[in-house]
Design a protein that fits this description.
The complex is a heterodimer of chains A (about 130) and B (about 280).
Chain A lengths: L3 E7 L2 E8 L1 E6 L2 E6 L5 E4 L2 E8 L2 E8 L2 E5 L2 E5 L2 E4 L5 H16 L5 H21 L3
Parallel strand pairs in A: 1-9
Antiparallel strand pairs in A: 1-2, 3-4, 3-6, 5-8, 6-7, 7-10, 8-9
Helix pairs in contact in A: 1-2
Chain B lengths: L1 H60 L15 E7 L9 H13 L3 E7 L1 H9 L17 H16 L5 E9 L5 E9 L16 E2 L3 H72 L1
Parallel strand pairs in B: 1-2, 1-3
Antiparallel strand pairs in B: 3-4
Helix pairs in contact in B: 1-5, 4-5
The chains are: A alpha+beta (about 130), B alpha/beta (about 280).
Chain lengths: ~130, ~280
C-alpha cells in the first residue's frame, strides 16, 4: 500500500510523525478510514478506538476528542488524548470506571456530575477494550 | 559603645544569613520545578503550533460558509482570561501580566476570568467584573479544566453574550526572558492568504457547521492549555531569577556587614590596648 505522511500530536507531546499506510479513527459520526490520496477533509473526532497500519503492522490506540485533518495529502491527527494500546494504564482506567459507576448508581447525584461520570465511564471502557487488543 | 555595635552587626548578619538560606532554597525549588515546566512546554509546543496552523489553514482555505466563530462583530463585551501565578516572590512576573491586561481593558466593557491566586486577588481588589473565581490555582489546572472552560466560553460566545475572547499570558521565551502577551482566541482572525484563487475543496464531515461547532471549543481549549504551560514555565523561570539575585544581594550585604563587624572589633581592641598602655 502507498504510505502517506501522518502526524499525531496531543497536548502531551508529539506521538507520531512519520509514514503510515492506513488510519481508522472514530469520528463524531462514525468510523472514518484514511488512505493515501484522500480528499482534503476536516473531521471532528469522537471517543473510540483508533487503528493505524504502520510498516504493515496494525497498531491500536485509544483516541479521544480533537480532530482529524487531511490537507494536500498530509494527515494530521490532533486528539485531546491518544494512547497506544501498550501504553494504557489499565489499573487507572479500572479505578476510573468504578468511581464513575459509583456516581451513576447514586440516584441523588447532580446532573452535571452524572454527565461527567458518563463521559469518564466511556473513556475508561474504551481504554480497557483497546488495552485488551494488544 | 563599640561592643553594642558589634553585637548589632552580628545580629544583622545572622538574620541576613537565614534570609539567604530561604532565598537559596526557593531558588533551588524553582529551578527543579522549572525543569518540569520546561519539558511540558517543549512537549506541548508542537500541539499548539499544529493546532494553530491547521485551523488557520482551514480558515483561509474556506470560502463557502461563514461561521459565527469567524465573523467579526462590533465588540460590546470582551472576556479576558488572565493567567498569573499562585504565589508572589517571582520578580515582575505577576505584575507585568496584570499591568498589561489592565492597560488592554481601557475603554472596553470587560469581564475577566482570572487564573491563579494572584490574578484573582488583583481583579477582586480592583473591582473588575469577574466571570468566575473557580480557577484559584494555576498550578493545579489540567487539560480537562481547560477544555471545560473553553466549552463554557464558546457557548457564551455563540449565544452572543460575549463578542471577544482574549488570553493574557506570559510567553516563556527562555530561562532569562519572559514576555507578557495577549492572544486573541475568538473570533478567529483569518489571514486572507490569496491562494491564487484555488478552489477550496475541503470535505467537512458531517457538515461544515457541525465541524466548526465541534472543533472550535477544542481549539480554544488547546491554545488555552498552551498558554497555561507557557505561563507556568515563565513563572518558575522568573522566580528562579528573582531568588538568584536575592541570594546574591544577601551575599553582598553579608560581606559588607562582615567588613564593618571586623572594623568595629578591631577598633574595640585598639581602644582597649590604648587604655591599658595609658593606665600602666
Amino acid at each position: 500500500m502507498t504510505p502517506f505522511q501522518l502526524k499525531i500530536v496531543t497536548p502531551d507531546g508529539l506521538i507520531y510523525d512519520g509514514m503510515a499506510e492506513e488510519l481508522i479513527v472514530r469520528s463524531t459520526s462514525g468510523d472514518i478510514g484514511v488512505m493515501a490520496g484522500h480528499i482534503n477533509c476536516v473531521v471532528p473526532l469522537g471517543m473510540g478506538q483508533a487503528m493505524a497500519i504502520i510498516d504493515g503492522t496494525k497498531k491500536y490506540a485509544a483516541c479521544i476528542g480533537g480532530m482529524l485533518s487531511v490537507l494536500d495529502g498530509k494527515v494530521t491527527l490532533v486528539p485531546t488524548t491518544f494512547e497506544w494500546a501498550d501504553q494504557i494504564d489499565v489499573s487507572r482506567a479500572e479505578k476510573s470506571e468504578s468511581r464513575a459507576r459509583a456516581v451513576l448508581d447514586h440516584k441523588s447525584s447532580a446532573d452535571t456530575d452524572i454527565r461527567l461520570a458518563e463521559a469518564r465511564l466511556r473513556r475508561a471502557l474504551i481504554r480497557q477494550s483497546v488495552a485488551n487488543r494488544k | 559603645m563599640a561592643g553594642v555595635s558589634t553585637k548589632e552587626i552580628k545580629n544583622r548578619i545572622r538574620s541576613m544569613e537565614s534570609t539567604k538560606q530561604i532565598t537559596k532554597a526557593m531558588e533551588m525549588v524553582a529551578a527543579s520545578k522549572l525543569r518540569h515546566a520546561q519539558a511540558r512546554v517543549t512537549n506541548s509546543r508542537p500541539y499548539f503550533e499544529i493546532l494553530y496552523n491547521t485551523i488557520s489553514d482551514i480558515v483561509s482555505a474556506n470560502s463557502e460558509f461563514s461561521s459565527p466563530y469567524l465573523t467579526k462583530r462590533p465588540v460590546k463585551k470582551s472576556v479576558y482570561i488572565v493567567i498569573a501565578g499562585d504565589r508572589g516572590l517571582a520578580g515582575g512576573y505577576n505584575n507585568n501580566i496584570l499591568k498589561l491586561a489592565e492597560a488592554e481593558f481601557a475603554g472596553k466593557e470587560v469581564s475577566v476570568l482570572p487564573i491563579g491566586k494572584k490574578a484573582v486577588d488583583y481583579f477582586r481588589s480592583h473591582k473588575t467584573p469577574i466571570l468566575s473565581e473557580q480557577y484559584l490555582s494555576a498550578a493545579d489546572m489540567n487539560v480537562g479544566d481547560c477544555f471545560t472552560l473553553s466549552k463554557q466560553l464558546c457557548n457564551l460566545f455563540l449565544n452572543g453574550e460575549i463578542d471577544e475572547i482574549r488570553i493574557g499570558y506570559t510567553n516563556f521565551v527562555s530561562v532569562l526572558s519572559q514576555t507578557p502577551s495577549i492572544l486573541q482566541a475568538l473570533p478567529l482572525t483569518a489571514h486572507p492568504v490569496p491562494k491564487e484563487s484555488k478552489q477550496s475543496d475541503i470535505l467537512y464531515e458531517p457538515g461544515s457547521d457541525e465541524v466548526f461547532k465541534a472543533i472550535i471549543p477544542e481549539y480554544v481549549g488547546g491554545i488555552l492549555y498552551g498558554a497555561l504551560c507557557e505561563s507556568r514555565a515563565a513563572e518558575q523561570a522568573a522566580r528562579r531569577t528573582a531568588m538568584d539575585s536575592a541570594t546574591q544581594n544577601a551575599n553582598d550585604m553579608i560581606a559588607e556587614l562582615s567588613l564593618k563587624f571586623n572594623q568595629a572589633r578591631q577598633a574595640a581592641i585598639t581602644q582597649e590596648i590604648t587604655e591599658i598602655i595609658a593606665g600602666s
